[in-house]
Amino acid sequence: MPTILKSVSRKFSLFIFWFENIIALAFFLLFELLLSLAVYPLTFFNILYSVQGLFSNLFYLLTWTLIGPLVLLFLIVKDLYNLVDLMKMHEGSKAYRGDAPDPDDDDDDGNSDDKKSAKDRELAVYNQIRETVIKHYMDVKRKTIY
After folding, report:
1. CA 138 to chain centroid
2. Number of C-alpha atoms within 13 angstroms, CB side, residue 56?
3. How many other CB atoms are found less than 10 A from the CB of residue 87?
4. Under a CB-based contact definition with an 8 Å cutoff, are residues 39 and 72 in contact?
5. Does residue 90 contact residue 16 with C-beta atoms inside 8 Å?
6. What share of the chain is helix, strand, coil (3-state, %, to 5)?
7. What is the Cα gyration radius of the chain?
8. pLDDT of residue 97
9. pLDDT at 32
10. CA separation, residue 127 to residues 95, 122, 133, 141 (Å)
């Protein structure tokens, strides 16, 4: 029975999480659209101010007029994608990457010591590599100074 309650609670929590975040995504989309309405004309002034030469100026203005809205739309979609990708990490970035143990995993098969010792060995190797790279960097830096 407790596992059923835990499962229902987790699903309800995710439902509320995404329900709230869909509202936040809508406001973020509105903000991005309003921001792009300001960015689009300001880019014309930036082109006029920064580009030298009549034909270059006309070419860049025409290019921005035709392609600018598509670029802004692409950037808005990319921003929304990145925000949703960040929101998918609702249990934290370590859990998303797979570094953290699963809190719902209640197996007591004795493999946790093997996994921990493997992680400890891996961490020791990374620390040795880090120390070696720092030592090598300091040697190279010392040689370039003298």
Report:
1. 32
2. 7
3. 15
4. yes
5. no
6. 85, 0, 15
7. 26
8. 63
9. 95
10. 22, 9, 10, 21
Name the nearest CA neighbour of 45 among 66, 24, 33, 60.
60
DSSP state of 91: T
Is the pTM higher than 0.85? The answer reads: no
Domains of the chain, by residue range, sit at 2-106, 110-146
Instruction: Answer whether 88's CB lies under 8 Å from 17's CB.
Output: no
User: Taking each helix axis from N to C terminus, what angle separates 54-87 and 2-50, rounded to the nearest 10 degrees?
Assistant: 170
Positions in the chain short of pLDDT 50: 108
Q: H or E element: which one contains 20? A: helix 2-50
Give dist(CA 122, CA 6) in Å, integer: 33
Q: How much is the pLDDT for 1?
A: 55
* pLDDT (0 to 100) of residue 105: 55
Q: Give the Å distances, CA to CA, from 99 to 30, 88, 92, 135.
A: 35, 16, 10, 28
pLDDT (0 to 100) of residue 127: 86
Does residue 25 contact residue 83 with C-beta atoms inside 8 Å? yes
In this predicted model, what pLDDT tens digit does every residue of 48-75 receive, in sequence order?
888 888 898 899 999 999 999 999 999 9
